[in-house]
Amino acid sequence: MIDTDEKHHVVTINVNGVRHTASVEARKLLVHLLRDDFGLTGTHVGCDTSQCGACTVDIDGQAVKSCTVLAVMADGSSITTIEGLAPGGGALHPVQAAFHEHHALQCGFCTPGMIMAVRQLHAQNPDPTESEIRHGLAGNICRCTGYTNIIRAVQSLASEGHRHD
Amino acid sequence: MTEATAIKYVGQPLRRREDFKFVTGKGRYTDDIKVPGMLHMAVLRSPHAHAVIRQIDLSAAHAAPGVRLALSGADLAGKIGSIVPNWIIPGTKVPDRPVVAIDRVRFLGECVALVVAETQAMAHDAIGLVDVEYETLPAVIDAEAAIRDGAPQLHDNVPNNITTIYKIGGGDYGKAAREADQVIALRVANNRLIPTCMETRSILAEPNVDGSLTIYLQSQVPHMHRRWIADTVGIPEHQLRIVAPDIGGGFGAKMHLYPEELLCPYLARRLDVPIKWWESRSESHQSTNHGRAHTETIEIAFRNDGKILGLKVETLGNVGAYLSNMASGGPTVNTINFGTGAYKIEHYEARSRVIVTNTVPVDAYRGYGRPEGGYIAERAIDAVARHLNLDQVEVRQRNFIQRADFPYKPYNGPAVIYDSGDYEGCLAKAMEAFNYAARSRERDQLRAKGRYRGIGVAAYTHMCGMAPSRRLALLGFNRGGWESARVSVDSGGRVTIFSGSMSQGHGHLTSLAQVAADVLQVPIGDIDVVQGDTRQVQAGHGTFNSRSMAVGGSSVHVSSSRVIAKAKKIAASMLEVDEGDVSYRAGQFTVPGTDIAPLGFTTVARMAYVGHQLPDGLEPGLDETVFYDPKGMGAPSGIHMAYVDVDPETGIVDILDYVAVDDAGTIINPLLAAGQIHGGVVQGIAQALYEEVSYDPDTGQLMTGSLLDYAVPRAEHVPSIRSLFQQTPSPTNPIGVKGIGESGSIAAPPCMVHAVLDALSPFGIKHLDMPMTPPRIWSAIQNAHAGAGR
């Protein structure tokens, strides 16, 4: 073992409504806790400098890049990941449905983080201008779509008057 | 199984069937896969661009917690073969490329040692304990510097750092130059790029009890990877199963043979445990191939009416420290063959030299060579228009290949044939959508008020879906040009397509099913598509060169047609009529002109397997496999237009509008096709305005080592792209399609350069290299002011 006991910390986190407890190295990032310990691989790692946003999750109501948070810092928090938006194979969340309808994804790798970011953007500004959408998504990189259809998907949420959590 | 209706699927904007797993977080990428007992590999990379390895001390790494194995290149010598390119242009000098450097490193990022440990963190901890003694050598980064006398030499068997010299042409350029009214010269650079798939590379090699290996790998070309790994590691192909799960973008970067793809299978066999490697983003910048990195010197001979008589081109392609998979083919065949673009330029003389330097290897990136080749033609024609002060559209029209010219062999050369096209049709559509006349007036009016608006135009054509196989042999390309498809109907009438193409976000589960559904005339919901598993899919070449629909889709079409041909025979036997009397429509086998009750597709499929009423000599089953080798290649074409506003105080370019009119032949799914254009155009805009790999020219240090330094555009940096299609079916394949994936990244760079040059024309600025960053534009304006003041 490289780690002594004191370098491990027990954290308890509510993820998608389920209480998880894990013993983690102090240096472990939240994104790795979600992926490696909790098996929630929908949250992706696309960079190592907090640029790409593929790891965006909701922590206590805020969209956060989970690579910027140590797992120990998330102790006691309530997290929603992409897997929590349409639980149990139920109806898609309006943002998920809009991405499908407007072909706002291709390879799908940035998509979970992008959807989590759009979810917050829409909650804060239900009827954004194109410019507000583009600036609001500045933390998330997509390499496939050229963003055109992502913008359309977000605009459709406003025009269809969707309300969601 | 529901009985079919006569819905036509081709041409419909069907929403993707693959989306649900991705939007719910259920996509399965290579790094998501974990297997019991899995160990992790980490790689130590050279921090120097060029150095001799004096000594490697692995003892501290060996002793670190959780470490199972630590190896240097010397430890692997003789155990794994060298990395050999798959495309070798005749006459090429191929340098030896060990999987892990043994006594010398030639680029920053080259593998020097590896560690296998229980966790990824432990492997990375231990890598930091490997002690390497280097003696640095002078490095050369730039291709022009690399071929000068006295330049550092990378490989003993590559004198002057030139691996390949390739020439192409036709007519008599010297004569054209003599007869021309004017000759001007231009030097253009195609900036070095990082493809930047959002999913970095990773691999998991898992030994099976029977001695075989299952290799999870995000490969654009699973069957070719199987062959290359087999040949290099020394494992027979039948003992390798490549599984390509969901792939987070490819863009050409995931179709090569990289060291890690050999090391994991080798180590998995050696240790008899699963081995995983995952590449961090910063590691990716120095370990995954770069793209472009060309310079072109162009001479243009033309008449004063704007007609170009001849073009002379000298290309230098910087391919990095070793020849990657296709590296000798990119700057040569893929580039200068296409240097005359959409224009009738009868006299053409082009030479390309492929140059090694102390940089990351350069290979395919979205368009591979065609963006560079298209840039030659477009920058040339734009320079002529600006030089003569003629309208940029009229000069293009004066030089266009005309509809009646197809099939057209540019410069009457030996290699290129453009099968079809209608450039005037595309142009008319683009001018209308863009509102060219009104925009031009607006630009002129605003110019008078001190605003710098510009209109950019670019036309393009190229060839996609490299084929037939015999043609590839002539070029030194050690693969075929075919694609395979198996269309298998089960005894319940449900269809499974096994395709050798490989989606990396393209939506093949939807688009290939659309192609099959129209032939089979069954609901698309009854058709599944399987790709990316060499144990399930019979054979294939994969997805690159915009070939999936033209070659892979055609293959699906042909095998589906054979399924129906066989089903007709069975139906005829069941109905006790001649086969020729049977008609198939809307999922029903009928005998027109009679009152014989029709048979449904499902009923006939069941009989194919029950076998009671098959005609004499016909085998049971309804399952057809095709290896489709095209007779020719389709030539996509198009016109793109951009409208920009340049702020002279800051040099910032604001893109006000971007219109793309693309002729990719028959469009299978306009929603997905437009998506390909959007993404390609934005990658082209990125090349034009933002992205460039930067090296310190003296030390060879990579200055753009992470996404903090390498400027991949975000949503706020680009406009919405307006995509329109012109459909001139390709006569080279049964479904009339041409490639589409690379068109955007071919057209957008020159289109953007032309728009910015147009905006800056009041300053007399005639040339800017990409990326046209604010400092570069601002400096050009300052220099122009200074020049005017002298």
Describe the structure.
The complex is a heterodimer of chains A (165) and B (790). Chain A is an alpha+beta fold and 165 residues long. Chain A contains 5 helices and 5 strands; from the N terminus they run E-E-H-E-E-E-H-H-H-H. Chain A has a 5-stranded mixed β-sheet with strand order 2-1-5-3-4, with helices on both faces. Chain A is globular, with a radius of gyration of 16 Å. The N terminus of chain A is likely disordered. Chain B has 790 residues and is α+β, with helices and mostly antiparallel strands. Chain B is built from 21 helices and 26 strands. In chain B, the strands form 6 sheets. Chain B has a 7-stranded mixed β-sheet, with helices on both faces. In chain B, strands 7-15-14-13-8 form a 5-stranded mixed β-sheet, sandwiched between helices. A 4-stranded mixed β-sheet of chain B has the order 16-24-25-26, with helices on both faces. In chain B, 59% of the residues are buried. Chains A and B meet through helix 2, helix 3, helix 4 and helix 5 of A and helix 1, helix 4 and helix 19 of B.
Low-pLDDT runs of 5+ residues of chain A are: 1-5
Taken from the alpha-carbon principal axes, the silhouette of chain B is: globular
Structural class of chain A: alpha+beta
| Spatial gap, N to C terminus of chain B | 81 Å
How much helicity do the residues of chain B have? 25-40%
Query: Helicity level of chain A, as a percent range?
Result: 25-40%
- Which structural class do you get from the secondary structure elements of chain B? alpha+beta
The description of the largest β-sheet of chain B is: 7 strands, mixed
Which residues of chain B sit in consecutive blocks of at least 5 with pLDDT less than 50? 1-5
Number of strands of chain B: 26
Please count the helical segments of chain A.
5
